[in-house]
Specification:
Layout (H helix, E strand, L loop, with lengths): L17 H20 L3 E2 L5 E3 H4 L6 H5 L2 E3 L5 E4 L4 H11 L7 E10 L11 E10 L4 H18 L4 E7 H10 L6 H8 L2 H4 L1 H12 L1 H11 L5 H12 L6 H17 L5 E3 L13 E7 L9 E6 L13 E7 L4
Length: 327
């Protein structure tokens, strides 16, 4: 009798038994209702793409996490690590078939070869929603409103959306004469919640010197209230012309949040930078009040030139992704 093959699966991958799969599909159904109520339409893209397409603008840690290999035809291919970069390729390939602004949602599996931990897997489902073709505060705010509406529909309890503006952070860094190190600096700040201020200060000091490092760290730490944080941001960016447009955009989104009742859900947090290089405007991360340690359950932001990797046409976009498996 031949030896039996052990019925095992790879670390970071999972089977779903009926109770879990039924619940997961119920969450997807509720999210699709929220997306459709806001006028978003579904798309799909291949799980496997050319490696050069996916890694064109991943940046930093992401490149190390991609499952990349050569297929039987000797082509360099990779499994998608998120749904945003394939969406940029999709836009460039089908631009003549799409109307603008284009509002899409995409619910599908992605793969990342990262360290596994509670709530984080190597194969997981993302629920993305984006508005492309509109660079205005209204589009930024609509994504925020849909984030809140979708999570409220899921009935997950209290949560807060932390937001900031990458343009303000980038303007501050360039104003300090450190523009060429922006990527390294933002990735150091992005780990503030995991490693703490002291360790981040040490990394920043090595990159920028102690004086600039303390100025950057002070800028990123939120105050006791949104108003106090806003006043600190304004003061820190007052002397940097490149940050003024970002200040105006953030102020308008905060005004819209106040007028629509969304403000209590928002936390102004300059440490939110998002580690991917393609974000250049407002950025969002969402945390459950009762389970903050599991990390963000819905993240995103504005990326005004992502599709420029694949097309000469400028297609400004803003969007977010809900981590279904973490929820």
């Amino acid at each position: 009798m031949p030896a039996l093959i052990e019925p095992r699966i790879l670390k970071g991958f999972r089977d779903f038994l009926p109770p879990a799969e039924i619940r997961r599909r119920e969450l997807i159904r509720l999210l699709e209702k929220a997306f459709q109520d806001f006028g978003f339409v579904p798309i799909d893209t291949p799980a496997l793409e050319y490696t050069e397409v996916l890694l064109g603008k991943g940046g930093g840690e992401t490149d190390k996490q991609v499952y990349a290999f050569q297929d039987q035809g000797g082509r360099n291919v990779a499994l998608r690590f998120d749904l945003t970069v394939p969406f940029a390729r999709f836009l460039a390939a089908h631009r003549e078939e799409l109307y603008l602004p284009f509002k899409r949602y995409h619910i599908a599996k992605v793969w990342r070869g990262e360290n596994t931990q509670r709530g984080r897997y190597r194969e997981f489902t993302q629920c993305d929603f984006d508005i492309v073709g509109s660079d205005c505060p209204g589009a930024d705010f609509e994504i925020l409103l849909l984030m809140a509406s979708g999570l409220e529909l899921l009935g997950i309890g209290d949560f807060h959306i932390h937001l900031s503006h990458r343009g303000l952070f980038n303007g501050l860094v360039r104003g300090l004469g450190l523009g060429e190190k922006t990527g390294e600096i933002l990735r150091a700040v992005d780990k503030l919640g995991k490693t703490g201020p002291a360790e981040v200060l040490g990394v920043l000091s090595g990159l920028a010197g102690e004086g600039a490092a303390r100025q950057i760290l002070d800028f990123t730490l939120p105050e006791d209230s949104n108003q106090a944080t806003w006043e600190k941001i304004q003061a820190a960016c007052a002397g940097f012309p490149e940050a003024q447009d970002g200040l105006k955009r953030l102020a308008e989104v905060l005004r819209l949040a106040g007028e629509t009742g969304l403000a209590p859900r928002l936390t102004l947090n300059p440490s939110i930078t998002r580690g991917l290089d393609y974000y250049d405007g407002l950025v969002y991360e969402t945390f459950l009040d009762s389970l903050p340690r599991i990390g963000s359950v819905c993240s995103g932001g504005r990326y005004n030139n992502l599709a420029g990797l694949y097309s000469p046409e400028a297609l400004p976009g803003v969007g977010a992704s809900i981590g279904l498996d973490r929820l």
